[in-house]
Amino acid sequence: DITNGRVENDRESAFRVMGNADAMSSVSVEKGRYSTKAGYLVEIDHDGRFAANDASFVAQDTWAALYTGSNTAELSLKKSSVQTSGKDRAHGVHVYGGTATLDEVKVETRGNAAYGLRGSQGSETNQSLLTVRNSQVEVMGTGGAALYVEGDKVEAVLEQTTLNATQANAHGMVQVDRAKLSVSDTIVNVSGAGASAYLSRVTAGGKGGNSATMNAAILRVPAGPLLWLQGDRHALTLNQSGLSAGEYPAKIGELL
């Protein structure tokens, strides 16, 4: 366990957590500041568990600040902050197998083509589950998205969370090829040209459609598409939600 620590690394991951067939490896962090300038800031592999409370994570020129890379990897963040900057595609939290749970977390990305939260899968992935509550995600570079999920083994659940995308072609939520998406009491603000609050994409290799449910959500865009559907077989359910495109503010139950 680490309490109020400070780790600065210029070349490798600050934390690499991996267990084995006999035992799970676990790291617990309480407060402190942790940074790196290469690779991943926190890399969690098979049978690894990483939990942090009231901690700050700062990553520059990395692939992602925090990364899970196995079905048995677990990440838990509470009352913490995640910041990335530098090269393109420096994501905040990337779940590539395993589970990540964020509660009262603030995620900021400043590089282009970066995802604040990303869920994806490989050929051996059984599940990539991303659960986010009472949090805020902001992407401040062009391209990318506050939330990006892709693949039929990937699921994201958002509750009482705010997603902000401020630059051109940076979307609020992107759902690709049968990833599962459930959103409730969540606000999505998109302000860049050519960006959408929700983008659903089904490619030729997707082998099925997308399905998403949004309850008591508010989606806002000043310009560009509010809901953008690419490909076929999309199922989007909106309950007691507010949607607005242009200058008018949205409220629950309104479509403007």
Question: How do the helices and strands line up, and which of them pair or pack?
Answer:
Blueprint: E1 2-9, E2 15-17, E3 25-36, E4 40-44, E5 48-53, E6 56-60, E7 64-68, E8 74-78, E9 81-85, E10 91-95, E11 98-103, E12 106-109, E13 115-119, E14 128-133, E15 136-139, E16 145-150, E17 154-159, E18 162-165, E19 171-176, E20 180-184, E21 187-190, E22 198-201, E23 210-215, E24 218-221, E25 227-230, E26 234-239, E27 242-245
Structure description:
The protein is an all-beta fold. It is built from no helices and 27 strands. 0% of the residues lie in helices and 56% in strands.
Rough shape? globular
Q: DSSP helix count?
A: 0
Strand content: over 45%
Q: N- to C-terminal separation?
A: 50 Å
What series of H and E elements makes up the topology?
EEEEEEEEEEEEEEEEEEEEEEEEEEE
Runs with pLDDT <50, length 5+?
Answer: none
Mean pLDDT: 92
Helix-strand makeup class: mainly beta
Total strands: the figure is: 27
Largest sheet: 18 strands, parallel
Helix content: under 10%
Cα-atom Rg, whole angstroms?
Answer: 18 Å
Brief descriptors of the model:
18-stranded parallel sheet; 0% helix; 9-stranded parallel sheet; globular; 27 strands; mainly beta; 56% strand; 256 residues
Summary, kept brief:
This protein is mainly β and 256 residues long. It has strands at 2-9, 15-17, 25-36, 40-44, 48-53, 56-60, 64-68, 74-78, 81-85, 91-95, 98-103, 106-109, 115-119, 128-133, 136-139, 145-150, 154-159, 162-165, 171-176, 180-184, 187-190, 198-201, 210-215, 218-221, 227-230, 234-239, 242-245.
